[in-house]
TrEMBL record:
Belongs to the AfsR/DnrI/RedD regulatory family. GO terms for biological process: phosphorelay signal transduction system; regulation of DNA-templated transcription. InterPro entries: AfsR-DnrI-RedD_regulator, BTAD, OmpR/PhoB-type_DNA-bd, P-loop_NTPase, Sig_transdc_resp-reg_C-effctor, TPR-like_helical_dom_sf, WH-like_DNA-bd_sf. It comes from Paractinoplanes atraurantiacus. PANTHER family: TRANSCRIPTIONAL REGULATOR REDD, TRANSCRIPTIONAL REGULATOR REDD-RELATED. Residues 1-93 bind DNA. PROSITE patterns: OMPR_PHOB (PS51755). It holds the Pfam family BTAD. Residues 1-93 form the OmpR/PhoB-type domain. Gene3D superfamilies: P-loop containing nucleotide triphosphate hydrolases, Tetratricopeptide repeat domain, Winged helix-like DNA-binding domain superfamily/Winged helix DNA-binding domain. Keywords: DNA-binding, Transcription, Transcription regulation. GO terms for molecular function: DNA binding. This is DNA-binding transcriptional activator of the SARP family.
Amino acid sequence: MRFSVLGPLRVTDHDREVPLGGPRHRALLCALLVHPRQVVPADRLIDILWGPSPPRSAAEMLHVRVSEVRRFLRTDEPAPLLARRSAGYVLQAAPGNVDAEVFEELAAAGRRALAAGEAAEAIDLLERALGLWRGEALPEVAGRDFAAARIATLSELRARAAEDAVDADLLAGRHHDVCARLPAVIAAQPLRERPRRQLMLALYRSGRQSEALAEYDRIGALLSAELGLDPGPELRDLRVRILRHDPTLSAEPAPRRRRDNLPSPLTSFVGRAADRATLSHHLSSARLVSIVGAGGAGKSRLATEVARDLRGDFPGGVWLVELSPLLDPRLIVPTTAQVLGIPEHPERDRLDQIVAALRNERL
């Protein structure tokens, strides 16, 4: 069962759209999907459905609405997605089954890939993230206080992801494409400075220096008229660098040291968001994290995806060392050193002797 809130509310069951009833049924589901897996108090749901003057039988009517939504979702047993708790109700949808949470996961991974200089991967991840949007978030409850913060957060993340995608295009040398599509973005949000910087850079890389400088003048005049402000330091710095023909503005990316040896995925990887988040959390504080499970359960793919997610968090990169083919444990150290590019150490033979002696209790 998948829930889509990045546009008009949709629920699908194995690609079959689930009918959701009337406006109150949809509002109830939206209220539970603002923060999935969190209990929403019954009195708040009553206020959402009937406003400040609910009928006397509102508690019973809420129970009826919940039962009807359960029937729509066909989740009465064995463990309903929509569950009753002492204080209210909770929708127990997995993170990978709510498009807003999948979007946040993909956008964050795209941002990390961009920070690591991986243009192609960043473009792929960010396009997939932005492709989940079908309109404004949670339109059924737009303007309602209980949803305002979540809608604002998702809208800002969408704007940031779109800007990250432009940066990824610039990193990949697609400055002509950026010049073509950014003016419409700027017209929709004329006071955002990051798209202006991106357009200035794209124009400069396209050999249109005078237009790039004119773009700076336009945003400067607009900020002064609307907010009484000057352009920010990043815009000012870019203008100076354009005037000086700073060679670092070249469209050619600087050579980068390889940061990983992870295999390229042959298929997309959607879902298991909770497992990925748990692994990422443990890796932030532990030196070793083990994944256990039956053969064929997807442990290697999960580990590789988490490693790919975290590439931007480790200055030395993220590296895969295949140990399963090794039959002799003494090969673990040299194999690892070879993958990491660590040269042979003159004391390695002595180290092997010490390890052997310890095994034979000679020391």
